Amino acid sequence: MQRRSFLRRTGLALGAGAVLPSLSFTSPSNVSLDSWANVRSQFLLDPKRIHMAQMFLASHPKPVRDAIDHHRKMFDESPVEYWEHNWKTMEPEMCKAAANYIQADPTEVALTDSTTMGLGLLYTGFQLKEGDDILSTTHDHYATDKSLEYAAAKNKATIRRVTLYKEASNATADEMVGTLTKAIQPNTKLVAVTWVHSVSGMKLPIRTIADAIKSINSNRSDQDRIYFCVDGVHGFGVEDVTMADLGCDFFAASTHKWIFGPRGTGILWGRKDAWNKVVPTIPAFSYPAYGMWLGMIPQGKLNFCDLHSPGGFHSFENRWALKEAFDFHMQIGKKKVADRTHQLGSMLKEGLRGVNHIKLHTPVSTELSSGINCFEVEGMTSEEAIKKLSTKKIIGSAAPYPISYARLTPSIINNEEEVKMCIAALEKIKE
Ligand SMILES: Cc1ncc(COP(=O)(O)O)c(C=O)c1O
Ligand 1 centre from 413 Cα, in Å? Predict the structure, then answer.
């Protein structure tokens, strides 16, 4: 199909004499990111504060800010022309950047606005039938819980939630995997978990669970296969793994947390042989999807990216700056990011373990923890502890769960000195 004829059919063809705005932005990567101080210098974070809650909502590094500014300027100058000139190429570019980061095929990556959107689309679009069983846990976020409830109600399926550990700091991988897999029933069709629990900091052994499910599936027909879905947001941007390493079927994450990407962006990844299990909820605006509807592209099977990236117009200045966020991580190196985040987190946990009035909930082992560190201060609620820390200019967060712990989450924008200051502030928090 000719682009011009597609645009005429959508009523958007430009006048003959129109001058198209300059092509899409390419960020200069002339800044060296080989020291953590240089990495930090890329952010406009207030240097008078210690920022320990980037996992909640991130600040953007310079290349992301520059890309957003550029796209916003171009949209403000001539929105329709800028969109027309770039829409067909920009979204596939973003999928490609995400796919490169997770070592997957770009056709497997749908663009979303958040983890919540990805999970909502995944679970409510999941093909279940009456009597099918969904197995989940008691440690998941509101976004998973509610999406599963809507899915169960829609399909007359059941949900069972198992508790994998009573106390995260004492849990073992074997115990958790054993508890989860033992709860799988013949009618279980969907297992839904969270990679890193934002309520406790626990990191689940996703690959071991995937292998256990694969082994159960080897004795089932394709029709009875269990699908394994993961809310991956708090491992994404921390751990040095690929989708193949994780071994799940679907993976949802936003990119406005540990990836430091534009606010209102995220991905939903689907393994090719699982695509058929999900039906779309929001029509995609991809070139192939819309073109087929217009009758200008022969009807055919759409890939996951083209079918499951929800359409409607978006805050494109943000969405189209996602590539720069992935590039930023790749320029530093995924392993370096993982090692640094674990190093600072371990330092914090070791320090907190020695404070009498602190109860650390997150496992110390990096096998079972990622970048989130959860704790309680004796005699204080999590909100009170976080408020008290903020008077010392330390920005943490209280986990938004019915039972809430305080969280400090050092990342690659922090340093050892800041971690020491957090430990010192917590030593004196009751004074
Ligand atoms: C485990 C988990 N899943 C999902 C979400 C929702 O994230 P989003 O803002 O990307 O929808 C959060 C929020 O922090 C979370 O902690």
Answer: 20
Q: Residues of CATH 3.40.640.10 domain(s) within the chain?
A: 106-331
Query: Where is 342: in which H helix or E strand?
Result: helix 334-353
Dist. CA 109 → ligand 1 center (Å) = 18
0.70 surpassed by pTM: yes
* CB-based contact 31:328 (threshold 8 Å): no
3-state secondary structure of 193: strand
Nearest CA to ligand 1 atom 2: 141
Tens of pLDDT, residue by residue over 409-419, are 999 999 999 99
What are the tens digits of pLDDT across the range 11-28? 454 443 344 454 445 555
255 lines ligand 1 (CB under 6 A): no
Q: What is the CATH number of domain 106-331?
A: 3.40.640.10
Q: Quick check: 2 pLDDT over 90?
A: no
Q: What is the pLDDT of residues 159-186, one digit of tens each?
A: 999 999 999 999 999 999 999 999 999 9
Q: What share of the chain is helix, strand, coil (3-state, %, to 5)?
A: 45, 15, 40
Q: What CATH number has the domain spanning 333-427?
A: 3.90.1150.10
DSSP label of 54: T
